[in-house]
Specification:
By secondary structure, the protein is mainly beta. It has helices spanning 47-51, 72-76, and strands at 13-18, 22-27, 30-35, 54-57, 60-63, 68-71. Helix content is 11%, strand content 34%.
Length: 88
């Protein structure tokens, strides 16, 4: 059995702000905040790599140059998801 490719994702996702507190992500009509305390992988990353974000499926965000995968659920409720890795 073979599966056909899904249609192109037309959802727009973009990083709208990077500050000394964290990163703001605009996904559709929602703005999500990722503090460096909860998402330390972004703290020392070059801004250009932070800005390069994709949404392969709705609510799933991927930073290919940083190899970071997050979901809207993780970003909205980081307390439910203990950190599995930290920057060295």
């Amino acid at each position: 059995m073979s599966s056909s490719a899904l249609g192109t994702n037309t959802s727009q996702v973009e990083v709208t702000h990077v500050s000394n507190h964290g990163v703001w992500l605009l996904a559709g009509d929602r703005e999500l905040f990722m503090s460096y305390e909860n998402f330390p992988w972004f703290r020392d990353a070059p801004v250009g790599k932070i800005l390069n974000v994709e949404e392969p499926t709705p609510g799933h965000y991927y930073w290919p140059e940083l190899d970071i995968d997050l979901t809207e659920e993780i970003i909205s409720h980081p307390e439910r998801f203990p950190l599995q890795a930290r920057n060295a």
